Amino acid sequence: MKKIVIIGGGFAGINLANSLANVNDFEITLVDKNNYNFFPPLIYQVATGFLETSSIAYPFRKLFKGKKNIHFWLGEFVEVVPEECKLILSNGTLYYDYLVFATGTETNYFGMENVKKHAIPMKTLDDALNMRNILLQRIEKATITTNKSEKKKLLTMVIAGGGPTGVEVSGMFAEMSKTIIQKEYPELANLGHTEIYLIDGGKSLLAPMSEKSQRYTYQSLEKLGVQIKLNTQVVDYDGEKVSFKDGTYIKTKNLIWAAGVSAMTFKGLPLESYGRAKRLLVDANNQVKGAPDIYAIGDTCLLEGVDEKFPQGHPQVAQVAIQQGKNLARNFKAMQANKPLQAFRYQDRGSMAIIGKAKAVADIPNQKLHFDGFLAWAMWLFIHIMSLINYRNRLKTLYNWSVAYFTNDQSLRMIVRPKEKEIN
What is the pLDDT of residues 298-348, one digit of tens each? Predict the structure, then answer.
């Protein structure tokens, strides 16, 4: 049996492991710092109280139950020793025949330490729960403060990043300010709607999508009351004021950071293994450059000059990770059978983003199709529900969304924290 160790249990790692489940040629160990898999595209709905944690997360051990050749190890990567095929973890050591990095990305603050210290990230499930607690506490604080300037800062939301996450978060906040805030916080009812700003350094929202999607998104968010500032770069944030490159600023206690991600570096791998944004350079079979028997899949890898439709590398999206995980599993099986390997080719199935209730955009590039409004929204709901890892997650999410759709509300806005912390 070949020993395969997978670092990371996201889309890429899970699809690789599941594709090799109960294949007697392989013994698989999946290593992750959390004991659960979660669905990143929906963490903002956990952060805003429209979904509960268990709707988008599922324990690894329950997921792998009955798959006798798959083991789970709760731990964190420390170092790899390639010449010994040894992996050093925070709580032990593993040996491998094949090592696969599927760690995804981490939040990129572009070297701005103040932003890193004071902004609210939107990358992990921990981030989402922390964001929900912080924002709910700040809204409660706004109901009792008598200082008008302080009240305004507590209620002003600035979202940095005009990609799908930024668009979805700003749209959700806009709808909440018009419904939930007005109904449940009578102390704030006379203040008007919460001020919501969406900031992006580029010339358009949803930059990778079609012009039709960009235009519809911009117009829809404006109608919801979101103030959009394009060609605007954040340069500093001290917890009280977001400063921009052009010298302007916005006073706020709430900067939601969805402006960028970067891959991670791994002790033990040579410098020549890394490309731009710290992504691991791989060949057509996802083997890392300069590292025999070590592979990388998903957001952490960069495949250049092989896939003719994506010569500069693939986008860091879920479908790339899923397809690479499955393709690498096929290649591991082919290696065992001494058969030719299959070079990775990405099948782009399109992209979409939700803006608000019954408002979304979707592009399907192969058929050159564009959808917006209710139809795109329904497509988004269906695809995201079916992408959840388990039928229980799907049923819970469908129930919560149905309640939210018909009532414009959800009852999951509890402030739950293991330890009391002072909020600035």
Answer: 999 999 988 888 999 999 989 999 999 999 999 999 999 999 999 999 998
Long-range contact list for 391-400, CB < 8 A, 24+ apart?
392/58, 393/39, 393/54, 393/55, 393/56, 393/57, 393/58, 396/51, 396/52, 396/54, 396/55, 397/42, 397/51, 397/55, 397/56, 400/50, 400/51, 400/52, 400/55
Task: Show the DSSP H helices in 188-340 as ranges.
Answer: 211-224, 318-336
Phi, psi (rounded to 5 degrees) for 319: -65, -35
Report pLDDT digits (tens) over 216-251. 999 999 999 999 999 999 999 999 999 999 999 999
What distance in Å separates the CA atoms of residue 107 and residue 261, rounded to the nearest whole number? Answer: 5
What residues are labeled active site? Answer: 168
Q: What pTM did the predictor assign?
A: 0.90
Tokens of 48: 């805003």
Q: How far apart are CA 167 and CA 354, in angstroms?
A: 8
With beta carbons less than 8 A apart as the criterion, state whether 381 and 333 touch: no
